[in-house]
Amino acid sequence: MAALGVVCVLLGAAAGPFASASSEEFWVSQSPAHLVSDRARFRRYLLYDVNPPEGFNLRRDVYIRMASLLKILMKSEEWVMVLPPWGRLYHWQSPDIHQVRIPWSDFFDLESLNKNIPVMEYEDFIAENGGPFIDQIYVLQSYAEGWKEGPWEEKVDERPCLDPPLYSQDKHEYYRGWFWGYEETRGLNVSCLSVQGSASVIAPMLLKNTPARNRSVMLDRAENLLHDHYGGKEYWDTRRSMVFARHLRAVGDEFRSKYLNSTNEADRIPDEEDWTKLKVELGSSLGGPYLAVHLRRKDFIWGHREDVPSLEGAVKKIRSLMKTHGLDKVFVATDAVRKEYEELKRLLPEMVRFEPTWEELELYKDGGVAIIDQWVCAHARFFIGTSVSTFSFRIHEEREILGLDPKTTYNRFCGDLERACEQPTHWKVVY
Ligand SMILES: Nc1nc2c(ncn2[C@@H]2O[C@H](COP(=O)(O)OP(=O)(O)OP(=O)(O)O)[C@@H](O)[C@H]2O)c(=O)[nH]1
Ligand SMILES: *[C@@H]1O[C@H](CO)[C@@H](O)[C@H](O)[C@H]1NC(C)=O
Ligand SMILES: *[C@@H]1O[C@H](CO)[C@@H](O)[C@H](O)[C@H]1NC(C)=O
Ligand SMILES: *[C@@H]1O[C@H](CO)[C@@H](O)[C@H](O)[C@H]1NC(C)=O
Q: Does the beta carbon of 169 lie inside 6 Å of ligand 2?
């Protein structure tokens, strides 16, 4: 039986060709078994994916939760995190641009990530594993009965799948699914786990499994696991390790200097590449001589939310902030659709925005452009964002890491008619 064959190959440290799949293009015929170090040979792989509608910035948060799980697993065994390729995100709508199977190195600095936990790209996993097979997939879900009265309890149990599974068996009894656009990937087994609690709740279950048969484990719908210690040292270690890719930082820096008269030296922003050595006194950084704004629109205005301003309201606030802080330049990051953006430009003609050429967009993709926007916002003397946008939250964190004064960071626009306009919470870095 085919499934058995795969198990044998994996047991044999991916050494030989795999008969029933040998005709298929994915098969790595030159198995690099002799190149694989002992450590690699015995380590186990943690893969994960997130509910498809979730955006880029929530996914960054799920990475932090998975990293904390990985740290727990590594206390008992050798594990490595396989980074889920980016793609098919709802908000990444630029036409004619290929936006699937994007490796993490397009957006983040892998060397920096690796200083926190061992990580590898999915394609490297395929090569090291000897093929695109995932031994065990757990689809995480809540409990059918919900959270009953009584004290909060952390638990995990194997349960029937509540939703129709997103994986279907092919004629070889392999499970096929989205797998980040890697159609050739197969799961050997899929089952559902009801979970309630933080990421660590699932660790005993993964450690109990026999490694030889469950070397690679994927947690799908990983957002169902919560943070172990939101805002604690471990949270911040992982967050700080999520340094943007060097080429995107370089584009952002060039833009700052060219259009906003902003350089690290003049802005008193530390020039440290290594996040493990970057520790700044809050308020010691000054930031560039501009106001930065994150105006989240699209679905935030379709819902007519009362905590989101009209464009007129936003521009009024922008003008007043520029005056108060003596800033004559304003950088705007926004997802506004063209028509609304033109209206904004009419109301605020002096605004500066990062507008990629088609070539640049193709190169950096929507995710890279969003990162450049976040980078420029993170370096401003004063920042104001949009209520409960994770995009704005990630900018807060970046500014906190850079050591800007919290007063210049935790600000948000208020809805035109909003009465109690509560401002964002200050989360201090724990080193
Ligand atoms: N370039 C750019 N893109 C933006 C901006 N605001 C939103 N976006 C895009 O819209 C997406 C939605 O925002 P995210 O924060 O990532 O999505 P989310 O996790 O659903 O979070 P919310 O903002 O809370 O909805 C982002 O990933 C970007 O692709 C912006 O200011 N600049
Ligand atoms: C699939 O995984 C479930 C849950 O771990 C397990 O009960 C079941 O025996 C597995 N099936 C196979 C064929 O390995
Ligand atoms: C993985 O481990 C579980 C639990 O120990 C087991 O039921 C399952 O059969 C294993 N999966 C494979 C593919 O062997
Ligand atoms: C740029 O900033 C420097 C101070 O860092 C200032 O001396 C200079 O006048 C500024 N240039 C412009 C064009 O605003």
A: no
